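Can't paste images in this forum, so I'm doing it all in text. The chain is below; anyone willing to post the predicted structure tokens underneath?
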Amino acid sequence: MKKDLENFTVAILVASGFEQIEMTEPRKALEAAGAKTRLISPEKSQVQGWNHFQPADQFPVEVDLQTAETEGYDALLLPGGVINPDKLRLIPEAIDFIKKIYQANKPIAAICHGPWTLINAGAAKGHTMTSWPSLQMDLTNAGAKWVDKEVVQDKTILTSRKPDDIPAFNKAMIALFAEFAKNRQ
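Text version of the structure:
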């Protein structure tokens, strides 16, 4: 397999309560494409994944959000789950991290409820986006144009609706990140 994302580092920002498959499957795809991934969290040692409404596996936190510097990352992945983004929206350091990635014009991929955090970071306004259907009004009120599509890319922001869309999300995410990697050389 061609390694389009060699020398490319992706931050994965999560709090306990993320939808596990929305982190693990995109992470596998990124690493298969040659990217380095780093799990960043406000949690100190481990972060808890969920399978819908049930706790799932725990994962080691690789970078403490308090010490994470956006300069070390080429892109950002924001998994969903209801609990995860709702927690992150209330953590100023998480919103600041997202905002800095966005302002640096680095690509961001968010799935399901993940786009909630983009609202708080000021990254939704003026973009066409998709998400889990319950976020439609939130994104619209934040100035985004919401559409019901499997995957939507608007400039550097890629969004997707749900776990069933992960194959299309992964393909589009790899393409967006690879385009960014190619253009920065």
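The chain has one domain: 9-184. The two ends are 21 Å apart (CA to CA).
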